[in-house]
Every structure is written in structure tokens, then in C-alpha cells.
Design brief:
The protein contains 8 helices and 9 strands. By secondary structure, it is α+β, with helices and mostly antiparallel strands. Among the domains are: 30 residues; 103 residues, no CATH class. A hairpin with a 5-residue loop joins strand 7 and strand 8. Helix 3 runs antiparallel to helix 4 and helix 5 packs antiparallel against helix 6. The longest helix has 48 residues. The protein is elongated, with a radius of gyration of 35 Å. The chain starts with a helix and ends in a 5-residue tail after the last strand.
């Protein structure tokens, strides 16, 4: 027991004595000293030429900034190449899963006609898909309802439809949404210019989603259950503007 208490008081020469260190230390302070000992051949030293590398002392004289930087760049390029390959593999897997999911959806749609249970499940899956897609789109605010284009031409409709598709719009609603981009399909509360002028304050309560890259918004039913029936339609409205969207 006495030896146990005396053990930390023992003195010992520094491990770097062979490299010139003459200190004799208590055993319990040796570890701290070894980390700071200027004679430690492995003591890390920052390169004084500014390359940013930290080099063990015994390798410092052979350090070459250009060589080390080239080696680092080569290593990073290799890692980048490996990541690109991995991303490519992941994309293939994702595309395969999307294909299988689409096949499953097609099967559910085929079965829903004859099976009420399958019809209920398929309907819920489609609703959930629309909600997930909606959540990926940024919220938008219309500052000028008077800038609405209520009768878009075919070219403008095609451009908006392409933007919807690229944003991930579920295929089962895209045609219905595009039908609802024209005032002939709008509900009573949007059906005429005079009505729209009178209802602008009501429209401010819409939850709008930005169609990416376009002066157009989506007003989806899943986001707007709080709105009255005379200003909503399933599965939602597409509103195109000349200006006035934030």
C-alpha cells in the first residue's frame, strides 16, 4: 500500500533523452511533458510557408508544400470520383424504386374499380402523395390579384404544365390542375372579372404554393380546407399572373 502512494512521486527521465532532453520528471507529469517536449521527434509543427499543413518535427525538413498540396488534391479528386459513382448508383436505385412504385400505383388503380377496399386505400395514397408534393413547394403571396391571367393561351398552359411536371406533380392530378387554370373551370367565386374584383380580400386567405420559376401559384384543396366551396375546386386551382407574386 505504501508503494502505491509513492509510485506517482517516482522520478524518471524524459523519453526524449536520446534526442537531447535532459529533464527528469515525476511520473505523474511525464505524459503532459511528452506532449510539449521540444525534443519530441513527433511534435507537430505548422508549416512556416503558409500551406496550412502540420508536420511531425522529424519529417519537417523533407516537407514540400507543392508536393503535399498535389497529393491532397489527388486524394480529394479520388474521393470526389468515388462519390460521383456512389451518387450514380443511388440514382439508379431511386429510379428503379420509382418505377416499381408506379407499377404498384397502376395496379391499385386497376383494382379499385372492382374492390371497394382497394379503392379506399388507393384514394388515400393519392391524397397523401399530393400532400407530400405540396409540402415540397415554397409558399407564395399574391400582391396583385388584378395581374391574374384568367384565359391563358395554349403556349402558356404548356409552359405551366411542364413546370408542374418538373416540380414532381403527381401524374393523376396534373391534367385536372391544368383544366383549372382557365376561368371556364373556376368556381362561382372566381367566375367573372367583377366577382374577382369584389372578392380580392377573400383570396388573401388562400394558402398559395409557388410553381417553381413561374409567375404562377397553386391553390390546392389539401392546403385550403378552410376556404368556402365557392372559391375552391378539386384538386385545386392554377392561377397564372403577369406580375405580383412574392
Amino acid at each position: 500500500k505504501r508503494d502505491f502512494f509513492l509510485f506517482p512521486r517516482l522520478c524518471i527521465a524524459c523519453d526524449n533523452a536520446v534526442y537531447g532532453c535532459t529533464l527528469v520528471l515525476k511520473l505523474d507529469s511525464l505524459a503532459v511533458h511528452l506532449g510539449e517536449c521540444e525534443y519530441n521527434p513527433k511534435r507537430p509543427l505548422p508549416c512556416e510557408k503558409g500551406c496550412g499543413f502540420v508536420i511531425p518535427k522529424d519529417e519537417y525538413k523533407d516537407h514540400n508544400c507543392v508536393r503535399e498540396l498535389r497529393s491532397l488534391i489527388h486524394t480529394q479528386q479520388q474521393k470526389l470520383g468515388e462519390l460521383k459513382v456512389e451518387i450514380g448508383d443511388q440514382n439508379l436505385t431511386i429510379n428503379e424504386l420509382k418505377r416499381e412504385l408506379q407499377l404498384f400505383k397502376d395496379f391499385m388503380r386497376a383494382m379499385r374499380v372492382s374492390n371497394p377496399v382497394v379503392r379506399s386505400i388507393a384514394d388515400q395514397m393519392e391524397r397523401d402523395e399530393v400532400v407530400r408534393w405540396s409540402n415540397t413547394l415554397a409558399r407564395a403571396r399574391v400582391t396583385r390579384w388584378g395581374g391574374m391571367i384568367s384565359t391563358p393561351d395554349e403556349a402558356l398552359q404548356l409552359m405551366i404544365k411542364r413546370a408542374l411536371s418538373e416540380s414532381g406533380c403527381p401524374p393523376h392530378i396534373i391534367d385536372d390542375l391544368m383544366e383549372n387554370c382557365h376561368e371556364r373551370r373556376w368556381p362561382r367565386g372566381l367566375s367573372s372579372l367583377e366577382t374577382r374584383q369584389n372578392n380580392r380580400r377573400i383570396y388573401d386567405n388562400y394558402v398559395c404554393r409557388r410553381i417553381p420559376g413561374k409567375q404562377a401559384v397553386l391553390v390546392l384543396s389539401c392546403d385550403n380546407a378552410h376556404m368556402a366551396e365557392d372559391v375552391m375546386v378539386e384538386p385545386g386551382l392554377v392561377m397564372i399572373f403577369a406580375h405580383g407574386i412574392e
